[in-house]
Design a protein that fits this description.
This protein has 12 helices and 14 strands. By secondary structure, the protein is an alpha/beta fold. The strands form 2 sheets. It has a 12-stranded mixed sheet with strand order 9-10-11-8-7-6-5-4-3-12-13-14. A hairpin with a 5-residue loop joins strand 10 and strand 11. The longest helix has 14 residues. It is globular. The structure holds S-adenosylmethionine and iron/sulfur cluster.
Amino acid sequence: MGQSQCTAFPLPQDHPRFTYAVMTAPLIDPFARAITYLRVSVTDRCDFRCVYCMSENMTFLPKKELLTLEELDRMCSTFVRLGVEKLRITGGEPLVRRDIMTFFRSMTRHLDSGALKELTLTTNGSQLERFADQLFDAGVRRVNISLDTLDDQKFADITRWGRLPQVIRGIDAAQKAGLRIKINAVALKGFNEAELPRITEWCAERDMDLTWIEVMPMGDIGNEDRLDQYWSLKDVRAEYENHYTVTDLAERSGGPARYVRLEETGQKIGFITPLTHNFCESCNRVRLTCTGELYMCLGQEDMADLRAPLRAHPTSEVPLEEAIRAAIEHKPKGHDFDYSRQTVDGRMSRHMSHTGG
Ligand code: SAM
Ligand code: SF4
């Protein structure tokens, strides 16, 4: 019929500018949320085995399943062309992926062009001593480092394979390189409750931001019991009130974090409370796994396979762009996590390391 029109683009489909208009239009989901933030898991592997994230004996994906570094570049560059302004690299542990610096360096061109506003990563810090300078040179300015305790033995217990001094050296190197650091601590009942003031003051001394994360029901983690681990951030906040004067801040980052200020130290503390607050209405993000699955929501199983169109068309990004747009059309309104009535409903079979935290 030739003259049929797409409602978003009032040009006939045979008009020479139709394809261009479709391909350069920003990604807007059915709830009018612009998708500007992509999290990319570059590997499912990790050099730690945190008890809330992985079981001790994990089976990892065969290599051929993973997107190559070139494919990751094509994926991310396509998202950037479609309006993604913030790219967060995660995993697994992103810095254990072989040659990952090649990928970071390849993303620098999007920072240089101004299309990408921020290139960042979430890491356990174990490899930062080696990579901090190179990350800074690639244009990374901020890093999230996950750290749940400052006690050597507890650190070894919670990460199973990690060693705290190595991570501290990584943090030192990152600060020396000029990277701004945010510490992410998972709030774990009976584990780091008593350490709250110490961790907070340690972050203040080093001028690092701090965010507490509620433990989420992701994946089979062996013998650990989620409800045993769950320390509500409402209670974490109450614990802060026992030690400090706490003021709520209106500031939102477009993500699930809410912030308070501690008047005594001037510090801003974040709370990521996916279970006790619904943050979905302002969600601007999607997640790409290391195998090229696009998850529109961390808390839903719905995903789109982007690897198939990518591999089937090595010289054209048009099918990939169409697949991305079709996927965004299915971004759900919100997630279904629910710990109410002491049962873990809305439980996810995926591990966090698969989707990328
Ligand atoms: N390996 C890197 C790290 O640990 O920072 C990046 C990947 S890790 C999956 C990303 C974040 O997810 C970490 O801050 C980790 O603490 C968090 N995480 C993992 N499993 C979680 C769970 N079940 N609930 C809440 N946060 C979790
Ligand atoms: Fe590895 Fe990060 Fe998961 Fe810990 S939280 S096991 S460091 S991926």
